[in-house]
């Protein structure tokens, strides 16, 4: 006589029995690694360009500098990709930490909701601003604007 | 009555060691790199929330953006930025270490050595970043840009 033992001595299977649909936890695991590698390139580039390779570094950062960068599609897409990946990577990391340490169901729901709301608001806000932003706003003090605004 | 003794009634065997250690992740470089990854990750997350909001002021007015970004230029914030970049560098390099440990058996066996390589590379990168940034931070601010 034979007996079939399902998941012998294994209390935590990778997937719950009977669960259907895509394996979102596995997708999240892959996303953290893939986005992490891309973020290293984007953030190290962001830091090197803004703080090391621009003369003056942190002191040179003002509306003229950022406006000049975001007037170019290259930096628009760089910053938007960095925004999406960083917020999603960071929010998923915070979700992991909340799942590890917050055991009270109600508090956990509130914390996860706050993380998701913050992520949605910042991604929408940042994306809209990057693509609707005017580097030469009418009526602004010309001394504060990027240099190319003078020739417009 | 049966003579059978359930193993459940036996006293717990004496723990082999009092100190936490000897497993893959507990008590050595494996655990401390995990703690460091969490702390740096949370710190970067909260900075990210603020940084998206301050950058959003470019949509309000040049004056509003310049006023808020000026807060990043005082020396105390300048030192904080060194800490932030160190957190980013450690999180980035340890993230690469995690990918290697997950996918490459040599790296799984040598994860402790890899942690010290992460620390070493982070020190080298910070030796490149810190002098340049602090010279900028402590230089007199010029008029305009």
TrEMBL record, chain A:
Its main location: membrane. It is found in: Membrane. Pfam families: Sdh_cyt. Keywords: Heme, Iron, Membrane, Metal-binding, Transmembrane, Transmembrane helix. This is Succinate dehydrogenase. The chain crosses the membrane at residues 27-49, 75-98, 110-133. Signal peptide: none annotated.
Automatic annotation (TrEMBL), chain B:
The keyword Ion transport does not apply. CDD domains: SQR_TypeA_SdhC_like. Pfam families: Sdh_cyt. It is found in: Membrane. Keywords: Heme, Iron, Membrane, Metal-binding, Transmembrane, Transmembrane helix. SUPFAM superfamilies: Fumarate reductase respiratory complex transmembrane subunits (SSF81343). The chain crosses the membrane at residues 35-53, 82-101, 113-130. Its cofactor is heme. Belongs to the cytochrome b560 family. This is Succinate dehydrogenase, cytochrome b556 subunit.
